[in-house]
Specification:
With 203 residues, the chain is of the alpha+beta class. 45% of the residues lie in helices and 14% in strands. The protein is rod-shaped.
Amino acid sequence: MSVASDQATSICSHCDIYSDRAIPSTNLNLHFAHCSRNLEKCKICGDMVPKKFAEEHFLSTHAPVACSLCSETMEREILAVHRGENCPKRIVTCEYCEFPLPAIDLFEHQEVCGNRTELCHLCSRYIRLREINVHESRCNGIINNVAESSRNTHAAERDRGPPRRQPQEFSKKRLLFTIAITGIAVLLGSLLFQRKLEHTQLH
């Protein structure tokens, strides 16, 4: 004797959106009576919650709480995510020095910290910390010869001292001009001396 597999089903009007299966039509009234008596729809999230746990559901999920770090108010269920990922005052560490500090200060700190330098032991150059990983993956020590040569050149220049200034060569025109000015000065001096002498003799 075969059993019919196409039994008529219906959706409960009280929990229709949240039911994961259709209710046999013959059991619909019984289901509705039980559903409406024991379940209620959360006004915030829309979940069907047992009436005896409705208050607990609200307190554990939707009750407003303040973050102890930044004092921002939010639903309890997102507090953990907020404190772990979004809170501006959560403690994070600098990727360069591993110093712990509030997330809100991280960018400014790393801008300064990342510009500090460390000596590369392969090429003997000082590399900024923000570039050290890329540098180490590419550095093969060849730059060491260039750096050493540069240091030797600077050392030799320091030993020689500053270059001597070459005496300037006077041009012919400048020499003639100087002689002419000197002659005029001598002539004027002679005239003034002669006038002074004549004035003295008159008195």
